[in-house]
Design brief:
The chain is built from three helices and five strands, in the order βββββααα. By secondary structure, the chain is α+β, with helices and mostly antiparallel strands. The chain is elongated.
Length: 122
């Protein structure tokens, strides 16, 4: 059986559970059908396909992510002199920020709910 995590009326996570041992933290989650998918809407009774174009939203999020990379990471990481002038701890912060941006698409709830990483001060 599947349970659906719903936030603001939208499925952001699906988990497979054993009916004999439902975890306490998801006991209030609605039972999902085999057709239920992340991004589907939940009205408190039934699931339905989203009224928004998930693919378009995902494309917008990817564009926003790419813009952040181009604005905050590429000018420094792509410039050998600027990169070498950075303190090693600042380099690590920038590396981690880049990695977090690239992993935005792996977040639970993508593309409808994104937790954006904080831009490091360099």
């Amino acid at each position: 059986m599947q349970k659906a995590e719903v936030r603001n009326g939208v499925v952001v996570n699906l988990i497979e559970i054993d009916l004999s041992s439902i975890p306490d933290w998801c006991v209030d989650w609605p039972d999902a059908t085999s057709e239920t998918d992340i991004g589907h809407e939940w009205d408190g009774v039934t699931f339905r396909r989203p009224s928004v174009d998930i693919d378009a939203v995902a494309a917008d999020v990817r564009k926003q992510r790419n813009d952040l990379l181009a604005l905050h990471v590429d000018p420094i990481a792509g410039n050998v002199l600027r990169w070498q002038d950075l303190h090693p701890l600042k380099q690590l912060e920038l590396i981690e920020y880049r990695r977090s941006l690239l992993n935005v698409t792996d977040q639970t709830g993508f593309p409808l709910e994104i937790e954006w990483p904080i831009v490091p001060v360099v």
